[in-house]
Each structure stands twice: as structure tokens, then as C-alpha cells.
């Protein structure tokens, strides 16, 4: 039980630290602003494109109205009225207007793309027109997912009714919620797959993040009536701006639910890196026992860890015992909670010396060079820690 509590605290502390480093609330606020700014041209764009694929445009309009009301409950009526007026007065729009609508809606895609880069600690430099092209491709993919979602939602009620007929003990409403949740999770996972800059993410991890976002949205949906009842007093302070204030808060919460799933994916994907980071910066008996028990290698006296000109595949962390390194005739002794072998890994060279166990026995942990380099490139505190140790080596 103590191990479970310690592990839970570790996960919570590092996940909270991630949210703080990424300025999660600022990301949510920025994305919410861009979403509000580009919502009308984006909805018009979706309506115009999907109307060409579906014979009955009223179905598209009603589905978009439902989606908009979930995001901006107090403003959805005015937004959809504006969409209706624009589309009624702009029959037969040419390619120029489609280009204008894409350009007006692209800041939302740009904001989402940058959020993914921030959360996954990636830096990709591209030219302006390349980024704009990618943003337009993202918008097209989002519109395609909207089309698939609307197409499937038309048949969800019939599917739930069929399932209820086959299995009478199942409640139709429960089955409908289940099918809707599964389809929503699949669409979110596909969107995550398209947007993520990390191409090595396992499919199961994408589904976990999508499920987390879906659960948050379901929870918000259940809390909607409570939030709306609490908002009655806002009119005292905001007057005629009350509806806008409520819609902005609700939009912010929904965006936070979406980005929460992405944060969870990035956290789980980098979990091993966080464990090794704690091993270097905050070593403890609990950490070694819970996370690194299977990683510990026991060595006897005079065993050689590496020799001159051997490949640099790992950095070594000493759990217990003493290790002596010899580089160009200079000997150095390493003890508990110290590490060695990082210079060859950093410089991408072969070993410049050898390392031998000098105590009766020693316990070490191998840190893969990819993990060490990732920590060195992404974590400022770890960079300072390594630089201080390198400075000590130079001075001595």
C-alpha cells in the first residue's frame, strides 16, 4: 500500500509539473480564443463543403447546431443564424471565397499544431507558406472527420434500437451513449494520430488519451445543468455580457478536456524518461525499490564495464559500490549516486578509457544513451546538473 501511495504521488507530481511547464491554462485560453475567433468561418466552411456531399443540407445544419450548442451554449443560436444568413445570401461561392474561408479558419489549426509541439517538446522550423499549407490540410482532415461523425451519428439511434431488439435487457439510451462514446474516442484518437509530432506513439496510447478526453467531456456534460444554474448570478456583474462569459468559460473547459488527453499521452510516453530524471536529480531508496529493482546489475570486483575504443551505448549510475575509470592515464573513483560514461555519449564517440569495479561488489544501472540525450536536450534542470558535474571534472 505504501508503494502504491508513493507511486501515485510520483505520477501526480510529475504530471502536474508537466502541466505547469507547458503553461496548460495559457494553452487552453489561447486555443479557446482562436476557436472563438475562427468559429463562424469554420462552421460556414464545414456547412458548405458537407452540403455538397449530403443531399439534405438540413441534416448538416442540425448536427452542426448540436455541436455548436455543446461548445457555446449561450451563443450557438446567434452563430448558426449568422451561418444561415451567409449561406443563403452566398449561393454558388467560387474558389476565391473558399480560399478566404480556409485562410480565416487557419489560425485555429495553427494554434492546435503549436500546442502539440509544445506538449511533446518538439521544435520544427518550416517556412510560412509551408505552415499555412499544413494548416489547410489539417482543416480538411477535421472537416472529413466531421463528415464521418455526422454520417455515423445518423445511424447510431437505429443501431442502438437494433441492439436493444436483439438483447432486450439492454437499455436503448445506455447503448446509444456507449456507441456514441466509442465512436467519439475513435475520432479523437485519429485526430491525435494526425496531429502528433511524435511518430512512435503506440496505438493503445492514443486510445487512452482519447478516452481520457471523452471522459472529461462526459463529466462536463453531466455538470452542464449545475454550471448553468450557478451562472444565474453572473448577470449582477456582467449584465448583458453574461451569455458571452458563460460561453467562454464552457468553451475553455471543453478545450481543457481535449488538451488534457494530449498531455496524458505525452506524459505516459515519456514516463521512463521522468523515472531516470528522478534517479539522477532525486535518488531515493523508494525510487530504486519501486521503479529500478529490475534494472539493477550486480557486479563483482575487477569486472570491466567498458574498455578503450568500445561503443558508447549507455551512461552508468552507481547504486552501491565503487567504480574506477581510467582515461589517458588519469584515474577517477566514483561512489554511490554518481554517474560516469556521459562524455562519450554526449560527443558520440567511442570510449576513451576503461571502467573497472574496485569494491568487493557493485550495483549499477544502465541508462540508454537515447534517454540521456533526451533528458539533456529537453530538461533545463538536468542540463544544469550535468554542466555542474562536467565543471567539477575540468577543475579536478
From TrEMBL:
What does UniProt give as GO cellular component?
plasma membrane
Q: Which residues form the Cyclic nucleotide-binding domain?
A: 275-393
- Superkingdom in the source lineage: Bacteria
Protein's cellular compartments:
Cell membrane
Q: Which segments cross the bilayer? A: 24-50, 94-112, 133-152, 172-192, 204-224, 244-269
UniProt xrefs under Pfam families: cNMP_binding (PF00027), Virul_fac_BrkB (PF03631)
Q: How does it sit in the membrane?
A: Multi-pass membrane protein
Q: Which keywords has UniProt assigned to this entry?
A: Cell membrane, Membrane, Transmembrane, Transmembrane helix
For this protein, the record's SMART domains field holds:
cNMP
Identify the PANTHER family for this entry. Answer: INNER MEMBRANE PROTEIN YHJD, UPF0761 MEMBRANE PROTEIN YIHY
Name listed for the protein in its UniProt record: Cyclic nucleotide-binding domain-containing protein
Q: What organism, scientifically named, is this protein from?
A: Methylophilales bacterium MBRS-H7
Amino acid at each position: 500500500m505504501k508503494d502504491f501511495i508513493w507511486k501515485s504521488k510520483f505520477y501526480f507530481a510529475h504530471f502536474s509539473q508537466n502541466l505547469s511547464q507547458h503553461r496548460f491554462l495559457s494553452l487552453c485560453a489561447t486555443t479557446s480564443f482562436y476557436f472563438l475567433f475562427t468559429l463562424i468561418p469554420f462552421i460556414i466552411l464545414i456547412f458548405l463543403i458537407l452540403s455538397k456531399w449530403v443531399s439534405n443540407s438540413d441534416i448538416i445544419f442540425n448536427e452542426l447546431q448540436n455541436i455548436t450548442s455543446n461548445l457555446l451554449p449561450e451563443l450557438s443560436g446567434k452563430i448558426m443564424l449568422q451561418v444561415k444568413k451567409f449561406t443563403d445570401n452566398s449561393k454558388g461561392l467560387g474558389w476565391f471565397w473558399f480560399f478566404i474561408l480556409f485562410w480565416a479558419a487557419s489560425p485555429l489549426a495553427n494554434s492546435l499544431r503549436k500546442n502539440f509541439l509544445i506538449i511533446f517538446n518538439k521544435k520544427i522550423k518550416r517556412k510560412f507558406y509551408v505552415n499555412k499549407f499544413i494548416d489547410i490540410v489539417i482543416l480538411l482532415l477535421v472537416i472529413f472527420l466531421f463528415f464521418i461523425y455526422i454520417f455515423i451519428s445518423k445511424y447510431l439511434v437505429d443501431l442502438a434500437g437494433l441492439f436493444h431488439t436483439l438483447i432486450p435487457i439492454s437499455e436503448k439510451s445506455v447503448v446509444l451513449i456507449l456507441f456514441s462514446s466509442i465512436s467519439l474516442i475513435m475520432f479523437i484518437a485519429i485526430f491525435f494520430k494526425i496531429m502528433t509530432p511524435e511518430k512512435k506513439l503506440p496505438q493503445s496510447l492514443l486510445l487512452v488519451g482519447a478516452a481520457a478526453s471523452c471522459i472529461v467531456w462526459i463529466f462536463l456534460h453531466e455538470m452542464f445543468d449545475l454550471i448553468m444554474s450557478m451562472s444565474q448570478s453572473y448577470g449582477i456583474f456582467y449584465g448583458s455580457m453574461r451569455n458571452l462569459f458563460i460561453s467562454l468559460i464552457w468553451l475553455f473547459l471543453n478545450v481543457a478536456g481535449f488538451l488534457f488527453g494530449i498531455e496524458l499521452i505525452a506524459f505516459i510516453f515519456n514516463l521512463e524518461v521522468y523515472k531516470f530524471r528522478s534517479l539522477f536529480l532525486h535518488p531515493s531508496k523508494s525510487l530504486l525499490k519501486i521503479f529500478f529493482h529490475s534494472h539493477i546489475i550486480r557486479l563483482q570486483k575487477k569486472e570491466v564495464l567498458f574498455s578503450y575504443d568500445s561503443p558508447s551505448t549507455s551512461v552508468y549510475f552507481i547504486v552501491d559500490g565503487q567504480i574506477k575509470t581510467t582515461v589517458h592515464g588519469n584515474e577517477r573513483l566514483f561512489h554511490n549516486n554518481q554517474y560516469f560514461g556521459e562524455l562519450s555519449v554526449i560527443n558520440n564517440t567511442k570510449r576513451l578509457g576503461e571502467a573497472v569495479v574496485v569494491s568487493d561488489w557493485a550495483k549499477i544501472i544502465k541508462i540508454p544513451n537515447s534517454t540521456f540525450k533526451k533528458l539533456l536536450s529537453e530538461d533545463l534542470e538536468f542540463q544544469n546538473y550535468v554542466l555542474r558535474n562536467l565543471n567539477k571534472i575540468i577543475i579536478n
